Amino acid sequence: MIIEAFLRWLETASAGDRAKAANALGRAYLGSGLGADRRQAALTAMSHLLDDPAPQVRLALAQALATSSEAPRAIILALAEDQTEIACTVVAQSPVLRDADLVDLIGRGDGLTRSLVAARPGLPRTACAAVVEVGDLGNVILLLENESAEFPRNSFARIAERFGHDAEVRRLLLARDDLAADVRQRLVAKVGEALAASGLVSTVIARQRLERLTVEATQNATLTIAGAAPPSELAALVEHMRACGMLTPALLINALCTGKADFLAEALAALSGLGDARVRALLATGRMHALRAMFEAAGLHRDIAGVFVAGTVLWRNAGVMDTAAGICEQLISDCRDLADRSPVVADLLAIVEKLQRSELRAASRSYAQAAALAA
């Protein structure tokens, strides 16, 4: 009888009164004072209100139910598919929505719906992955700003792939402590691409020089990332770089001369097909001919392999006071005769010489800063 009387009253009540009744009905349903029969009656009445022609009525019902885990699931799902203002109220807050519901909303909803889901506290992994896959730039930025979102590990690589060209996305990703080394390297490459494509930069620097500077900066940043990466992330970083054709002789000689031994070993293992333990043993104690064979197996020209052998031996014999600049200088001296006979070696030593100058300038800046602080 109560439900019948309520339905009759709805037919003549104003929209404002119906909205007040809808809100009160929702709050009453969530309270503990209703018996089973009355709760069922309230559920029936709320189901009827879903078809109310006045949006303010449905909004009032959504506001009453949105934050409660006791809200009826059928009502919440219906409100989540209502017009934007009403749907937003429950999509952004309702704990009743399950992971699968959120993924469905991401797939079928518009950009605003996806943004609301992306900003939900404690957003689960499956929903995060869905936003990353189908969301637009704004959705993904909101997701990255959501500090409580539970990201799957591979989502960061996907974000870098889709939106790494955007400076804000790069900033948010690089600020994360849990960002893998291979993703950081992807972002470094994106920065290089952005600089190379910049009209302002290209008007100041000649195209050929800009391309060379971009490659060198990317290599230096990559090696910095590799030097700081935990051993568990090196394999993924190296595999990404191998697939992109980035494990060039220039990068490898840079790694060798600057003492990035772990990265160099991982890269040589990937390129040569030798096991990691075997490569490390050869670098540490292998004879000259065995070292040369390993470098050649990694795809290096025979003459270039000789330079790498010489560099490896220099590092084996290096003392604690030896620096990268010193290693570069000695390597250039040891391989000068070979460079006179082989153009490929001459080109490689030119890279080593440039690295030496860079290391000397870096050491000079560090000394000057230390002196200024001491003063």
TrEMBL record:
Coiled-coil blocks: none
InterPro entries the UniProt entry points to: ARM-like, ARM-type_fold, DUF2336, UCP035865
SUPFAM superfamilies xref list: ARM repeat (SSF48371)
This protein's name: DUF2336 domain-containing protein
Organism: Pseudorhizobium endolithicum
